[in-house]
Q: What sequence folds into this?
């Protein structure tokens, strides 16, 4: 039975891999529309992910009407499923194809010959993958990633995300290696808006809800002397591709107060989510870990 299970997983993986390669050959507008349509279809099916989206939206945007929750949840589902379909071109598309799809607007000089140590602080919007791939086309970068449960998928993701030269660093051994990477002058790209439990985290508000928030960026910046530069990649309307915005480095960050640093990070994220709430990964259980004594919200 174990052998049959492994064979089934390999067949499923081979099918998904072939599908991604086919999607990479399609015009972007076709695959994007296909992803949106698939998201609309899957939204009609009851699922745990759909419940998570609705729970997150109700927590973060209270007092909205049922019609507004439904509209926003559907739009979010379409974007999320579409982002999975667009992995085809992001993971297997050519340099030229990705370069044409992603425009970059930066408040810092990306061509600087000897830039200071830099931590690029990203967030889980649906187009984060596209922006990260675009940056790695022309700039040396190291990127932190969370290993996936499937070894086959994990190896594929690591290989394809690093195919333009990005150095992939697993969160399992990230702290020492990341610090060494920053000290030798290579910028590091990571996202810190995930709930990884109580360790190295603090509870600070996210849209007024206590959220278990990682302090890793502030601690890494303090240890390395790196500047912290936020970036956000958004999906453009009418299937025009993506826009990556690189902001100015955060002033006076980190401070001497991890609580304040975490609060500033969440406040910045709130501003960006408020601009495009349908594009944030509400399918994640952002409030999975609760303060001691509080029940699960999911």
A:
């Amino acid at each position: 039975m174990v052998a049959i299970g492994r064979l089934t997983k390999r067949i499923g993986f081979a099918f998904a891999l072939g599908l991604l390669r086919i999607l990479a050959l399609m015009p972007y507008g076709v695959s994007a529309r296909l992803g949106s349509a698939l998201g609309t279809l899957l939204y009609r099916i009851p699922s745990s992910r759909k419940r998570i989206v609705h729970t997150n939206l109700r927590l973060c945007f209270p007092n909205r009407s049922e019609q507004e929750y439904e509209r926003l949840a559907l739009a979010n589902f379409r974007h999320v499923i579409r982002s999975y379909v667009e992995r085809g071109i992001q993971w297997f598309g050519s340099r030229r194809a990705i370069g044409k799809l992603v425009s970059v607007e930066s408040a810092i000089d990306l061509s600087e010959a000897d830039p200071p140590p830099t931590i690029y602080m990203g967030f889980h919007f649906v187009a984060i993958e596209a922006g990260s791939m675009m940056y790695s086309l022309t700039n040396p970068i190291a990127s932190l990633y969370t290993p996936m449960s499937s070894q086959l998928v994990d190896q594929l993701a690591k290989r394809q995300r690093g195919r333009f030269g990005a150095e992939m660093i697993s969160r399992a051994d990230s702290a020492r290696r990341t610090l060494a990477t920053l000290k030798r002058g290579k910028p590091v790209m990571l996202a810190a808006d995930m709930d990884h439990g109580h360790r190295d985290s603090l509870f600070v508000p996210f849209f007024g809800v206590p959220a278990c928030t990682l302090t890793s960026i502030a601690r890494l910046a303090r240890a390395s002397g790196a500047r912290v530069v936020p970036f956000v990649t958004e999906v453009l309307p009418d299937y025009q591709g993506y826009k990556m915005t690189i902001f100015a480095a955060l002033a006076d960050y980190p401070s001497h107060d991890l609580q304040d640093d975490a609060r500033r990070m969440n406040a910045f994220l709130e501003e960006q989510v408020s601009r495009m709430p349908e594009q944030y990964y509400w399918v994640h259980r952002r409030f999975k870990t609760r303060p001691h004594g509080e029940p699960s919200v999911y």
Observations:
- The mean pLDDT is 93.
